[in-house]
């Protein structure tokens, strides 16, 4: 099953299971979604539950927050993560803060879905990876599924959760296939997946980079006799730091791979956490492989050069063992 | 276009070097192949030659400054070309902060290069001291990863005695594990102390109390060579599980041979040369003695290169006699003489100091009868040779006769040599020395 | 002169007059009049006292008082059903009180105490009372319009008869969310009344200096939201207009924009020197004081006597006294509650990691409060920087607690900063 189909299945199942669940977003109904994640749902559930909205991101999310406070369980789709920036006010000032600032009286069981990532030549306003921005905000949960199974399990969990969830999908991953368990239920947030076991270096891959990290690990094993342990945190908030620390204590080396920008990135954050919590277990500085520190360029070679590939991960791992 | 001169790598184990002396001054002409700068490596003082023609337009590493391999230490450019590096800018700034600045210093620098040469030289003088005291790169602090530090602390291992295999020579967990496997001979620190003192302050003992009893303390900075020796010796002791084999060798035959050779050969081979030759011949028959234990493997070397420990300049230098098994006693004697001369004169080169597969250490000239030596890692063994001494010996016919006896001690790394191996090797050496004619062949 | 013109225009378009408030609306029954007047008086006294408490540094941050807007607040909320939702701005003490939130919990919130209606987390700008469907004061200008639209969507979605009133200021009509929300509410036919409280200023910027269209009731027409206007100084006019707007929203599923033309007698916040308007202008509006004019009519029409009014005022004062006393006696929130209510913990999310940037020790979540000694001590150390009043208050309570529990250990010495005067 493809990643996008897994998401579609999660939405369908949750729409069926709970009358309070509805989805809204730009062109998710008649148009079937910019990335076809919501294909077929309008026909099946009608326009009360599957709502096309005007292009008004901040208000779409705000309407989601308001309806969630009042008891519904909205799932909002934003067409790309860059468009979520128009809704940052509602996400940060309201979705994330309401439960806290009103002393726990109101809940915001809202899911905001959005794809991120480069590789499709969509240029500097449609291709970024901004999970770090949302990770920054206390009160939000942040999911970054990289497989079809996780996409489904985590989306179901997100919809059933009482917290506002930023659910970050990936444009590249939409078309990827993966095993999805039959009748699988919701997954637990805050449980990392160890994609590959290894004893020499811990590689933490975020979102699509979990896939890249896994490929790099295969190459490290075949070409360099290094066994990398690949960890996909799956959710950044809550973060399964325990699994990462366990691994680092075993391998004594960590590389964090993300597609986003380096400054204030997920890797920067994780590197800080690792050195704070496992300093005495490190055999090398915590390394990061990140996207280039530029707006995503359009031209294909430039674009490919602007986000990490296996080779970058391989090199970063090798550099922890020897002078390159 | 200026060419960067980088800190050269001048030995197999060199990671950083110290600029001892700039042979060419800033503004001076540089010719390819001609001496440019003297560099102190971990093994020797080296003259480094320019690899391009031009003018030395800028010096970035001052005399006394230690820099890692690959760092730019100077720039060579066309005559009149200006220095462009960031470092030069900094110096201008610091120059203007001096109490007696020359107002036109900057203009002068551009216009009259020869005159300003002396000025920066003088200004730079304080720098080496600063570099030496605060250099985190390797001068004081041992580079070790956090996990390696923690493990060393827990095991009571001295980091200084362990060589790092990580990037930039960093001591990593594997190095500690290897060191620990090799037998923890290092002093176990009292745990109390560990808890109380932060790891970095372990280096310095408490200043109160102890000092008074010992009088004034004069600390002496080690030279690069001395540091290398101390590091390698400590590493050897910490990692190699050693055992000792003692034997007395009747050198009367050698004494006789030497007397005869004195008449025909110049220089006449010393007893040590004979020991070297005997060892070299024996090593051919016992390849493991000519090997090394490394990373869980035995390395056996095809060439037999015998190092001869030489005391010089408050340090220990081990020049190598390459392919000693294939050299005649006379050739060994000539080689040894030449190498010792170079060591004493201070112009031995790194290649002449590396590549040894076995070491002979002789303290006979100091009247030492018998002693133990520290294995020169990663070699399998070292032969400690004492002085010749006439001793009463019972001969085949049962009579007591005076013979020239020499005590030797073979110190073996038990990871590659076992008791019998060492004993057989040593017996062969004795056989060769007691019937020395074969040595002279 | 534009100023004068604008004021006189508002006056002429509003239904009320300076001396005969709501003459065209006949008075409702005495109980209703009593309730309305009592609420307006209570809000007035509450706000006055809040201003005093702010000056005494009992209240921190910003304090936005609604004095002058009581008729707008009470008139509109009086038209709402108990099951209707109200969302407001950061000038919302009156709204909370009008919806029935006890003044003492509002005052406690202003004091930052644990018994505040938002448990001391929100403060003056973020009051909340879920039970009374008062869904919050919001600090972001225009930020509550999408929320109200969402709440209205829930009403529509669940097919209830509930409606939503969303109050915001004249300045908010310039925000993108205003247009976006009007459009979406009209598109989806949601039961919401957008009520713009036009108090003539967006902070210090006068209406005609911030909005090209000064008849704000017309500002949503292009989005399909019909507008109307009422005299915000006349409680009966506001009530009547809101009732009609709510009926249309509720029954016709047609969102409404209702403009209440009013005036705040005090500055934007306590720290406002009011240099952008003349004393004369304020005086002119004060002559239309909504409480005074409504009271006058009640006396004129012999429904109330002067004594009745005096009694009502006494009651209001007593309630406010009680509120202050309650707030003063309420403790500050427990420092260990710092991380409470950040997340709703449930089956899916049982714990989470948060790292206090001042300490490497992680907080594992609300259920594992015993995060450790260090975070707790850090919180204590941070709390010691609270203002003098807060520090003294905490000390006093600590001593009290120690005496009660017979523990000798006192609190860490406070290192209070100077009390800041607040401001914008």
**What is the terminal-to-terminal distance of chain C?**
28 Å
Query: What's the tally of helices of chain B?
Result: 15
How big a fraction of the residues of chain B is strand? 15-25%
Share in helix of chain C: 40-55%
Structure class of chain C = alpha/beta
Greatest interface and its residue counts?
Answer: A-C, 56 and 58 residues
**Could you say what the CATH topology of the largest domain in chain C is called?**
Rossmann fold
Overall mean pLDDT score of chain B?
A: 77
Largest sheet of chain C: 6 strands, parallel
Strand tally of chain C is 10
Describe this structure in words.
The complex is a heterotrimer of chains A (324), B (441) and C (424). Chain A is an alpha/beta fold and 324 residues long. Chain A has helices at 3-17, 41-49, 57-69, 88-95, 98-101, 131-135, 148-160, 209-224, 241-251, 266-278, 300-305, 310-319; strands spanning 21-25, 50-52, 73-77, 111-116, 141-143, 165-170, 193-196, 201-205, 228-232, 235-237, 254-257, 287-289. Chain A folds into two domains: 3-175, 3-Layer(aba) Sandwich (Rossmann fold), CATH 3.40.50; 193-319, Rossmann fold. Chain A has a seven-stranded mixed beta sheet, with helices on both faces. The mean pLDDT of chain A is 94. Chain B is of the alpha+beta class and 441 residues long. In chain B, the strands form five sheets. Chain B has a six-stranded mixed beta sheet with strand order 9-18-17-16-12-15, covered by helices on one side. A four-stranded antiparallel beta sheet of chain B has the order 1-8-6-3, with no helix packed on it. In chain B, a hairpin with a 4-residue loop joins strand 4 (35-40) and strand 5. With 424 residues, chain C is an alpha/beta fold. Chain C folds into two domains: 2-329, Thiamin diphosphate (ThDP)-binding fold, Pyr/PP domains (Rossmann fold, 3-Layer(aba) Sandwich); 342-405, no CATH class. Chain C has helices at 2-13, 30-55, 70-78, 93-98, 103-110, 144-157, 176-187, 207-210, 235-251, 279-286, 290-300, 306-329, 373-383, 388-405, and strands spanning 85-88, 134-137, 164-169, 192-198, 201-202, 205-206, 227-231, 256-261, 354-355, 362-363. In chain C, the strands form three sheets. Chain C has a six-stranded parallel beta sheet, with helices on both faces. Chain C has a two-stranded antiparallel ribbon with strand order 5-6. Chain C is globular and about 65 Å long. Mean pLDDT of chain C is 84; it is low at 1-22, 355-363, 365-370 and 407-424. The interface between A and C is large, with 56 and 58 residues.
């Amino acid at each position: 099953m493809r990643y996008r189909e897994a998401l579609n299945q999660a939405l369908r199942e949750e729409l069926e299971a709970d009358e309070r669940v509805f989805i809204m977003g730009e062109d998710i109904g008649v148009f079937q979604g910019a990335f076809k994640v919501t294909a077929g749902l309008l026909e099946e559930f009608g326009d009360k539950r599957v709502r096309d909205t005007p292009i008004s991101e901040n208000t779409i999310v705000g309407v989601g927050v308001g309806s969630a406070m009042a008891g519904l369980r909205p799932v909002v789709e934003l067409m790309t993560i860059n468009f979520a920036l128009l809704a940052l006010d509602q996400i940060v000032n309201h979705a994330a803060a309401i439960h806290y600032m009103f002393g726990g009286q109101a809940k915001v069981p809202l899911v905001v879905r959005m794809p991120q990532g480069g590789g499709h030549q969509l240029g500097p306003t449609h291709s970024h990876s901004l999970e770090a921005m949302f990770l920054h905000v206390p009160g939000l949960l942040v999911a970054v599924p990289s497989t079809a199974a996780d996409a489904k399990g985590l989306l179901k969990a997100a919809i059933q959760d009482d917290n506002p969830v930023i659910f970050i999908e990936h444009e590249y991953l939409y078309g990827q296939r993966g095993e999805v368990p039959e009748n699988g239920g919701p997954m637990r947030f805050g449980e990392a997946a160890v994609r590959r076991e290894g004893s020499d270096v811990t590689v933490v891959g975020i979102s699509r980079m979990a896939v890249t990290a896994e490929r790099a690990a295969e190459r490290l094993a075949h070409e360099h006799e290094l066994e990398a342990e690949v960890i996909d945190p799956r959710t950044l908030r809550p973060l399964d730091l325990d699994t990462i620390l366990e691994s680092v204590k075993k391998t004594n080396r960590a590389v964090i791979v993300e597609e986003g920008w380096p400054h204030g990135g997920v890797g920067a954050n994780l590197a800080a956490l690792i050195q704070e919590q496992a300093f005495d277990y490190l055999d090398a500085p915590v390394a990061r492989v990140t996207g280039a520190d530029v707006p995503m360029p359009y031209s294909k070679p430039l674009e490919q050069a602007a986000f990490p590939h296996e080779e970058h991960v391989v090199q970063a791992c090798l550099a922890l063992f020897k002078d390159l | 276009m200026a060419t960067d001169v980088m800190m050269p790598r001048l030995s197999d184990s060199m990671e950083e070097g110290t600029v001892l002396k700039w042979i060419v001054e800033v503004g001076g002409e540089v010719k390819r192949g001609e001496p440019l700068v003297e560099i102190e490596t971990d093994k020797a003082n080296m003259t480094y030659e320019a690899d391009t023609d031009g003018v030395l337009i800028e010096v970035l590493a001052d005399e006394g400054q230690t820099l890692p391999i690959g760092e730019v230490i100077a720039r060579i450019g066309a005559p009149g070309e200006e220095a462009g590096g960031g470092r030069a800018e900094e110096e201008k700034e610091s120059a203007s902060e001096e109490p007696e600045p020359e107002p036109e210093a900057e203009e002068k620098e551009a216009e009259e290069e020869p005159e300003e040469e002396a000025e920066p030289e003088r200004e730079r003088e304080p720098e080496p001291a600063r570099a030496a005291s605060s250099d985190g790169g390797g001068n004081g602090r041992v580079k070790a990863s956090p996990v390696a530090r923690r493990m060393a602390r827990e095991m009571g291992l001295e980091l200084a005695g362990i060589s790092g295999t990580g990037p930039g020579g960093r001591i990593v967990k594997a190095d500690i594990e290897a060191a620990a496997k090799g037998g923890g001979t290092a002093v176990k620190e009292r745990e109390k102390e560990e808890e109380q003192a932060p790891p970095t302050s372990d280096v310095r003992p408490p200043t109160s109390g102890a000092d008074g009893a010992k009088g004034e303390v004069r600390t002496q900075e080690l030279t690069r060579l001395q540091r290398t020796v101390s590091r390698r010796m400590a590493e050897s002791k910490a990692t190699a599980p050693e055992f000792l084999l003692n034997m007395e060798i009747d050198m009367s035959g050698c004494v006789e041979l030497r007397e005869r050779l004195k008449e025909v050969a110049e220089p006449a081979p010393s007893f040590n040369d004979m020991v070297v030759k005997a060892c070299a011949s024996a090593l051919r028959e016992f390849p493991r003695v000519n090997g090394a234990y490394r990373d869980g493997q035995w390395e056996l070397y095809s060439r037999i290169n015998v190092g001869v420990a030489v005391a010089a300049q408050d340090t220990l230098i081990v020049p190598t006699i390459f392919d000693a098994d294939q050299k005649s006693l006379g050739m060994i004697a000539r080689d040894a003489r030449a190498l010792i001369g170079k060591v004493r004169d201070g112009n031995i080169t790194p290649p002449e100091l590396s590549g040894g597969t076995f070491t002979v250490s002789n303290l006979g000239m100091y009247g030492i009868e018998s002693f133990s030596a520290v294995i020169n890692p990663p070699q399998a063994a070292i032969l400690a040779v004492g002085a010749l001494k006439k001793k009463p010996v019972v001969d085949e016919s049962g009579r007591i006769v005076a013979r020239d006896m020499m005590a030797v001690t073979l110190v073996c790394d038990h990871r590659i040599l076992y008791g019998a191996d060492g004993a057989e090797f040593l017996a062969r050496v004795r056989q060769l020395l007691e019937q020395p004619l074969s040595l002279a062949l | 002169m534009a100023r004068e013109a604008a004021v006189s225009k508002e006056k002429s378009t509003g239904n009320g007059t300076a001396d005969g408030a709501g003459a065209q609306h006949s008075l409702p029954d005495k109980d209703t009049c009593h309730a309305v007047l009592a609420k307006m008086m209570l809000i007035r006294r509450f706000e006055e006292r809040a201003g005093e408490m702010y000056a005494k540094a009992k209240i921190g941050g910003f304090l936005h008082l609604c004095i002058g807007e009581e008729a707008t607040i009470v008139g509109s909320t009086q038209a709402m059903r108990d099951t209707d939702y109200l969302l407001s701005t950061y000038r919302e003490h009156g709204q909370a009180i009008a919806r029935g939130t006890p003044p003492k919990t509002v005052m406690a919130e202003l004091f930052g105490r644990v018994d505040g209606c938002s448990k001391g987390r929100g403060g003056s700008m973020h009051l909340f009372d879920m039970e009374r469907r008062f869904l919050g004061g919001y600090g972001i200008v225009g930020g509550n319009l999408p929320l109200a639209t969402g709440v209205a969507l829930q009403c529509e979605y669940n097919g209830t008869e509930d409606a939503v009133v969303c109050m915001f200021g004249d300045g908010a009509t310039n925000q993108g969310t205003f247009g976006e929300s009007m459009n979406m509410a009209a598109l989806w036919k949601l039961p919401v009344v957008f009520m713009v409280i036009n108090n003539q200023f967006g902070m210090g910027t006068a209406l005609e200096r911030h909005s090209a269209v000064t008849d704000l009731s017309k500002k949503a027409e292009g989005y399909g939201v019909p507008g109307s206007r009422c005299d915000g100084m006349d409680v009966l006019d506001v009530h009547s207009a809101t009732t009609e707007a709510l009926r249309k929203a509720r029954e016709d599923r047609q969102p409404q924009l209702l403009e209440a033309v009013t005036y705040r007698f005090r500055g934007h916040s306590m720290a406002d020197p009011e240099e952008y308007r003349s004393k004369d202008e304020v005086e002119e509006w004060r002559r239309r004081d909504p409480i005074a004019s409504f009271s006058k009519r009640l006396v004129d029409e012999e429904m109330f006597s002067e004594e009745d009014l005096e009694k009502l005022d006494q009651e209001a004062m007593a309630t406010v006294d009680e509120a202050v006393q309650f707030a003063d006696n309420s403790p500050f929130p427990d420092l260990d509650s710092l991380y409470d209510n950040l997340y709703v913990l449930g089956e899916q999310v049982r714990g989470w990691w948060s790292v206090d940037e001042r300490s490497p020790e992680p907080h594992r979540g609300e259920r594992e409060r015993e995060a450790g000694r260090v975070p707790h001590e850090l919180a204590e150390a941070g709390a010691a920087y609270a203002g003098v009043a807060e520090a003294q208050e905490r000390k006093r309570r600590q001593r009290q607690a120690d005496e009660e529990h017979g523990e000798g250990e006192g609190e860490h010495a406070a290192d209070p900063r100077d009390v800041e005067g607040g401001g914008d």
